Structure of Kinesin-like protein:
Amino acid sequence: MASVKVAVRVRPMNRREKDLEAKFIIQMEKSKTTITNLKIPEGGTGDSGRERTKTFTYDFSFYSADTKSPDYVSQEMVFKTLGTDVVKSAFEGYNACVFAYGQTGSGKSYTMMGNSGDSGLIPRICEGLFSRINETTRWDEASFRTEVSYLEIYNERVRDLLRRKSSKTFNLRVREHPKEGPYVEDLSKHLVQNYGDVEELMEAGNINRTTAATGMNDVSSRSHAIFTIKFTQAKFDSEMPCETVSKIHLVDLAGSERADATGATGVRLKEGGNINKSLVTLGNVISALADLSQDAANPLVKKKQVFVPYRDSVLTWLLKDSLGGNSKTIMIATVSPADVNYGETLSTLRYANRAKNIINKPTINEDANVKLIRELRAEIARLKTLLAQGNQIALLDSPTALSMEEKLQQNEARVQELTKEWTNKWNETQNILKEQTLALRKEGIGVVLDSELPHLIGIDDDLLSTGIILYHLKEGQTHVGREDASTEQDIVLHGLDLESEHCIFENVGGTVTLVPLSGSQCSVNGVQIMEATHLNQGIWCLLFKFLGIYCCKKFRQEGSMCILELIVD
Ligand SMILES: Nc1ncnc2c1ncn2[C@@H]1O[C@H](COP(=O)(O)OP(=O)(O)OP(=O)(O)O)[C@@H](O)[C@H]1O
């Protein structure tokens, strides 16, 4: 059990507020934040008995309004206070979530993403993750796999921010996996090897984020953005396989203000309505969860049936685990220091105050097979003790002891088999990861194929797709065909004229031959082939709408050029 951690951060006055000669109304002391209503005279109470000041206590109150103040909290301090815990959680195998909530222009993007040279939590968490991976791999035999995705929720529609120009970027479906919970179908996931890889993806995704000018903030984003890191870690710990998976959601919400306060009209107003639908639902979810935990804390209160409306918005549905579920969650409420924003700031502070009451149930996400191995090992140890005890009281030849012995042997064999399977799976993953770094190297704005092995480059038949797949041709045979072929195909393609077993690429010591299988259409350099054909470097092979170019390192060194061209038959 762990409460959602809540931090409030106040930013400096902006130009607009300075021009309006706005007054500071936010004070912070340790973890307390106080807001002053200047309309109520000092020492007095308002018309309806309202207090001039209201004080809230959070886990952290970050004063970032004045860089010269001794209490000033920088981006680095925010990371040290909150971000390092996220990195730690990832290595321990817990899910984590950080979300920033607040009015437009209050500093959500600055806190989450930051500016160039003044980076925020997302880049710092990613950097922290990789620097710890590098440290760990130096003294440990641990292996890691890190995957990122980046999506935007705009008008209740999910959009992939990392798959440009593809027909599938917009309006992705949210589905539910029986074990893993809600997920976005067809969302692209990108394997990353180092911080540089993440930086590139973040940049591309940020450019893709829908931005629209509104009356209140020119660069304001009207969408919710979720940057997700899936971090898998595997190692042997005292001969025992360990594998944990951690999912980290880093969320930059859209501005929380009412649409009418921004002077927005028409389409923008509709957007505001939908954005508010997600935020209103988020508020309802937070309230329901806060009620639940307060009831749970008071055994005298009769338990109410509280319904948590996760499904009422895409945002809350996707963040279901992060809110009241299996995650260590942090909310950062960002506020303006100015009296002109009193209403919005007070509402943000109240929202944050409510979120403090949410209780989550984070658990270490262990691989199911590894868990089984551990359980079987515990069972083996138990059986061994029982047998040893049985030995002492001369039970050794009894039927019970024999069946125990049998069970012990079965368990030992199963553990051995599972451990082997698990080790092979990880070795394979690591080899693929190593191969990827070998094969693709960034050079300026281009990508250089730098592989020793002969390979094919597959270009999707979808004209709008920019996806290019690299297939290494292993020594021996590589079978190409459909998913429904009677034998498993190494390269599975889709297409009307594609035979279930279409062709075979035979690689003997770096010399490759294309063998068309009966009835299949394969062309080399535009000429259909009927029999096994030796492929020269740089040759075009057309297998239905799939175009492959055969090339290898030698070819590149000779200074020839591979020209990629999409041919559709
Ligand atoms: N703590 C801070 N220190 C310095 N500048 C800040 C701080 N917080 C925000 N700013 C600046 O204020 C401006 C608005 O901040 P930001 O874009 O992060 O707001 P936002 O809440 O994300 O708005 P939106 O809802 O439009 O996404 C930016 O120019 C940002 O650099």
